[in-house]
Amino acid sequence: MIVANLATYPPRRDGMLDVVRALASQVDRLNVVLNEYDVIPAELASIDRVVPVIPEENTMDVGKFYVQPAAEDLVMYVDDDIYPRADFVSRTVDRFNALGPGRWLAGYHGSLYLKPTLKHPIRYFSFSRQRIANYRKVWACDRALDQATVVDQIATNSAIIRGADAPTYEFMRDSRKFVDVRLARWAFERGITPVCLPRDASWLRIGRYGHESIHNSFTMRHHAHVSEEIWTYAFKVAGRGEVVQSQGGMA
Asked: Within the chain, how many helices (H) and strands (E) appear?
């Protein structure tokens, strides 16, 4: 079964409904976790394959992990502000399967942490352990990438993993606003390889709520506990920066 998990809250209702309408027909089940809702929006009840869930607590972005998948599922984590094409799920599943045997966490927004060198003296001498989030190469989801590439971290705005490898809600629960970091730690500790998937430029677009982004309001404040968690896996992922050769079917 192909399952997609999405978390949202009332100010993003219209955008969420756009995403749900675009995605529901592409998956077998779309779990929509409704933070801060008292009742399920009537529009969701009319869309096939959608399973609305009002959680017992405000899960924020961790809500993507609130519903535990079956081991045999393929699980996609998506944001409520993506612009999914009609082939978003089918292409993503094909690209994931083309990675071949192994344990993979894949997606379209990947980060590779970088240590500054003396070629850039200002960055080198200003390097700070706590500001590690400033020192990375980012393959943004709306930019082209020719080949699947191993990274340190995959964003949960457009990710895919096997249900057997998916983290539990309890593991993710206290990672509100830094779920990408916690997921990367989960993957590293369990030998699951994070891979940024190939795509054309603008094949996927994300960010209609840019001014509200967690990146601007939280990540760039460099909270010490988040930085320390990044250091548990940064620079340590086997094969980081290397291309994953397709096993066929990658498009």
From this structure: 8, 13
State yes or no: pLDDT of 250 exceeds 60.
Answer: no
Domain coverage including residue 14: 2-230
**Does a structural domain hold residue 226?**
yes
Q: Is the dihedral of CA 237, 144, 8, 47 positive or negative?
A: negative
Tally of domains in the chain: 1
| The token pair that represents 151 in the structure block | 């990274």
118 inside domain: yes
Task: Record the tokens describing residue 208, joined without a space.
Answer: 């209609």
In a domain, 243, yes or no: no
Give the HSE-up count for residue 119: Cα atoms under 13 Å, Cβ half-sphere: 3
Q: Quick: pLDDT tens for 93-123.
A: 999 999 999 999 999 999 999 987 666 666 6
Instruction: Report the 10 Å Cβ neighbour count for 156.
Output: 25
pLDDT above 80 for 8: yes
Angle CA 124–113–207, to nearest 5: 115
Separation of alpha carbons 41 and 69, rounded Å: 24
Of 30, 76, 33, 32, residue with least CA distance to 57: 33
Residue with more model confidence, 125 or 162: 162
Tallying the residues shown for the chain, one arrives at 251
User: What are the pLDDT digits (tens) for 198-229?
Assistant: 999 999 988 766 545 665 565 566 788 999 99
For helices 13-23 and 88-97, the axis angle rounded to 10 degrees is: 60
